[in-house]
Amino acid sequence: MDAKPRLLTILDAVTALMMTAATIMVFAYAPMEAVMGPVQKVFYFHVAHSWVGMLSFVVAGIAGIAYLRTKNMKWDIVGLATVELGMVFMLVGIVTGSIWARPIWNTWWTWDPRLTTTTIMELIYAAYLMLRQGIEDPERRARFGAVYAIVGVISVPLTFFSIRIFRTIHPVVIGSGDAGAEGSFDMTPRMLQVFFFSLITFTVFYFDLMWHRIRLGSLAQRVEQLKLRLSE
Amino acid sequence: MMIEVRRLIKRFGPKLVLRNLEFNVAQGEFVALLGPNGAGKTTFLRILSSLSRASLGEVRIAGFSLPHQAAQVRQQLGVVSHLPLLYGELNAEENLRFYGKMYAVPALDRRINEVLKLVGLSQRRRDLVRTYSRGMQQRLTIGRAVLHNPSVLLMDEPHTGLDQDACEMLDGVLREVAAQGHTIVMTSHDLARAAGLASRFDVLTRGSIQASVQRTDLPEDGLLAFYRQALESATAARVERSAL
Amino acid sequence: MNTSAGASEKNQAAETGGAASYFSALWAVIWKDLAAEWRSRELLSAMLVFALLVILIFNFALELDALARNNVTSGVLWVTFAFAGTLGLNRSMAVEKDRGCLDGLLLAPVDRSVIFFGKAISNLVFMLVVAAIVLPVYSILYNVNLFRPGLMLVIFLGSTGYVAVGTLLSSMAVQARTRDILLPILLFPVAIPLLVAAVKASAGFLQALPIEDIRPWLNLLGVYDVIFIAVAFMVFDFVVEE
Amino acid sequence: MDGPANTMVYMIAGYAVIFTVLLVYLISLVIRWRNLRQEEEILREIEKKS
């Protein structure tokens, strides 16, 4: 498994192509939004990052369940990989959201449900990593990580609803939602195309990165096993 | 057979702690499990006591297999580990009553009296366990383990941390327990102590049982020689294997 | 050997007296926690002193004058309960772990949920005792009447959810190297919806808002309790079994 | 004067953040991969010797 699989190389190339295309589309193809100006273009990648962040945390929960059912270490590697990726993507999502909010809402930060929830998600998965760090035995580490990932992924929608009951000012992009939210806008067909293309691109990017990160995880596991065997 | 273990393998990550261990104990035997530190004695006992799972292999206790029939196995087991498993803020009687309820022991009050008498703590039954000496705690621990009349008693280094007198008293309790027909497996690294108690001696090293001898087959004062020989042959076998 | 005959007898007994022996074991776990605590009062006194200190600090940090108090009382109360709660949860599990009693519990032929519910219920009792002492003290200190049935309900619902998650997470935390600091880090982010709802519902009752305004928060509390009791019940086995 | 607001700076900042973070993450993956490979080789050497 040391050699890089052909399929992965192809996936790398496809991802690179799509990323380039998406970037070009954002800057050259998507129209300028009439009120917000250029900053609106951040939105395409911002939403894509947040989406991938969400996706990866859901995957973490699923990997947790799968680990507890099968006790197969592969699922632990998947869980750790997806949490790490989720943290990176979610961080970008939060920071870009904040940058977008500054000119539009006139503030870097608001305690709106999505912002707050995503921030709490980051904290949950930071706690996940700290929990793992505190446990030497790989089998127990995997078990506890899986349990915490499940607890975490269940608490996230509840967190969202709890803050949702406060009034939100985050624009609801898809669906009619509260139309009065400041900074919402109607997407032209071109905008929609760019938007969905970005989503697809970043989803592909996620799976590409996951593959790499899982390979890294397997390698780390081999090294850890070697160390344990030598310390015997 | 009270305990039947077939081809037991336990790995921690890549580390093989128990390799193809075979172990059988008949009803009423008192087996001393000897071996150097790190041989896997404690791990093996934890698997027998259902606290840890085997990676591979078959474990049957009193006819029930682990881990599928863990609840039935647990009912048949009394366990003494190197920790007391007692609550310091409760007295002897309360500790026993608590465990008695967990095991659903019938006629609990009478049984508690019997057990306290057996381990010689009737006088101090109302004292908090945290005020007990190490030896008294250990005797109560054994009382706790036999409370529900288990058919199998597992003990991990029961003499650890006890002085000479406490050891003698503990041995007295253990002989009495053995005389009641419990099947006992005890790990120990104290050969002299084990020699005075057990009816059978097994040497566990490098993750499997290397040798086993009945007390009756043992020459006078021959346990040490037997133990040394078992360890040496195990080392020799390993050297041979790695030379190949 | 009559082991097989004896076993089937025992099985039958387990089937007929299943519920009775389940609750007898559950009660035994709760009873021994409460009895031990009654002797030493270690945990409760620590929780209480800590809770009162938190309130004292809030007094100076927030300048709890009469006007501010109405708005922040529920927040102060829940921060106090949450902090004191983690203290108790951690200690109650560490006691089991240190003397090997957790192994003792696991060796018993009872369902693992007995251990979980037993520990959770005794933790709940500790939290409620702390609340029962903090509330009157707070009422006297700040001259507000906290004795409203609605608030009691919220405290009960909030504490229930908190100890359900907390007992599960503390049984993981005590098995980690960093156990002294780990529990709050694990517990607070997943308890946020619970705390938000509890604070809001308490504030609603304190300000005598119409019940329609409070109901969403009560619903959220109920949903959180049900979901997390169920989840903790399902995954607790994996936390304690090797 | 009702044209698009001038928010170019924010757009640039946004994309700068996106690409920087992703780049840093990719580099960290590569570095970790290399370090682990080295470590693995060293450990295998030691294992062979013993």
Considering the chains and any ligands shown, give keywords for the structure:
heterotetramer, C: 242 residues, mainly alpha, 9 helices, disordered N terminus, D: rod-shaped
SSE arrangement:
The complex is a heterotetramer of chains A (232), B (244), C (242) and D (50).
Chain B: E1 3-12, E2 15-25, E3 30-34, H1 41-48, E4 56-61, E5 64-66, H2 70-76, E6 77-80, H3 92-102, H4 108-118, H5 134-146, E7 152-156, H6 164-179, E8 183-188, H7 191-195, E9 200-205, E10 208-214, H8 223-243
Parallel strand pairs in B: 3-8, 3-9, 6-7, 7-8
Antiparallel strand pairs in B: 1-2, 1-4, 4-5, 9-10
Helix pairs in contact in B: 3-4, 5-6
Chain C: H1 3-16, H2 18-40, H3 42-62, H4 66-98, H5 101-107, H6 112-142, H7 149-173, H8 179-206, H9 211-240
Helix pairs in contact in C: 2-6, 3-4, 3-6, 4-6, 4-7, 4-8, 6-7, 6-9, 7-8, 7-9, 8-9
Chain D: H1 8-49
Strand content of chain A: under 5%
Label the structural class of chain B.
Answer: alpha/beta
Count up the helices of chain A.
6
Low-confidence stretches of chain B: none
Strand content of chain B: 25-35%
Helix content of chain A: over 70%
Mean pLDDT of chain A comes to 84
- H/E element string of chain A? HHHHHH
N-C termini distance of chain A? 26 Å
How many individual β-strands of chain A?
0
The main β sheet of chain A shows up as: none
Termini separation of chain B (Å)?
Answer: 37 Å
Structural features, described:
The complex is a heterotetramer of chains A (232), B (244), C (242) and D (50). Chain A has 232 residues and is mainly α. Chain A has six helices and no strands. The longest helix of chain A is centred in the last third of the chain and has 42 residues. Chain B is built from eight helices and ten strands. In chain B, strand 9 and strand 10 form a beta hairpin. Chain B is globular and about 60 Å long. In chain C, 88% of the residues lie in helices and 0% in strands. Chain C is globular, with a radius of gyration of 20 Å. The two termini of chain C are 31 Å apart.
Summarize the structure.
Chain B has 244 residues and is α/β, with parallel strands linked by helices. Chain B has eight helices and ten strands.
